[in-house]
Amino acid sequence: MTIYIALLRGINVGGKNKVKMPDLKRIFEAMGFSRVETYIQSGNVLFESNEKEDTLGKKIEDEIKKNFGFSVAVVLRTAAELEWMIRACPFSEEEIREAESSNSEGESLYVSLLTQAPTQEKIEYLDTFKSESDEYRIINRDMYLLFRHSIRNSKLANHLQKLDVPATVRNWKTINKLYTFVKDRADS
How confident is the model at residue 103, as a pLDDT? Predict the structure, then answer.
């Protein structure tokens, strides 16, 4: 069985698209997935399945729409992809520390998890929103974002949707916590 992490976009944000995690877990179990576990209210679900990723995302999106009445994008990563994402972080520990020291919100490193790699044309357009405060690097389907101020006031963050690729953003602490769950699961 493959260990997957489903990352749902835009649930439980600003009082919209409310989903209780026990309900989400029950839906995943009803779809036949095993060892289902949720983490925090932003829609992170660990589960195991023999199905392939290319059919899983759509299947999960359809079930969420059927059960909750709204559409959300679902981004999937395997346990191996999550581990690789952490090891491949293109920003040094020093760069991250420097960004965090100038960021009043504390969180500086994020990953936008994309369903597919964006086109070069879209990346070049997004480049117009890079600054000394906001930078990014894309590796495959993962976009690493480093904010030296706030993600909330970032022009770069506010234009990520212009990549025209379904995506969801998680902070680095969440990515690492999900990996801890994956490692614990693989070790047991």
Answer: 84
Given this model, what pLDDT does residue 59 score?
96
- Residue spans of the domains in the chain: they are 2-82, 85-171
Q: Is 123 helix (H, G, I), strand (E, B) or coil?
A: helix
Which has the closest alpha carbon to 107: 44, 59, 52, 150? Answer: 150
Residues 1-12 have a mean pLDDT of: 93
In the chain, what percentage of residues exceed pLDDT 90?
A: 82
Q: Which CATH superfamily is domain 2-82 in?
A: SP0830-like domains (3.30.70.1280)
Strand 34-39, strand 142-147: pairing: unpaired
For residue 158, how many other CB atoms are within 10 A of its CB?
A: 13
- Which tens digit of pLDDT belongs to each residue from 33-89? 999 999 998 899 999 999 999 899 999 999 999 999 999 999 999 999 999 999 999
Please give the full DSSP string across 42-67, using - where no structure is assigned.
TTEEEEEESS-HHHHHHHHHHHHHHH
Q: How far apart are CA 7 and CA 60, in angstroms?
A: 11
Residues 140, 172, 131: CA angle, nearest 5 degrees: 70
Pairwise CA distance, residues 161 & 158, whole Å? 8
Tokens standing for residue 78: 């395997």
Angle at CA 84, nearest 5°, toward 183 and 182?
Answer: 15
In this prediction the pTM is 0.93
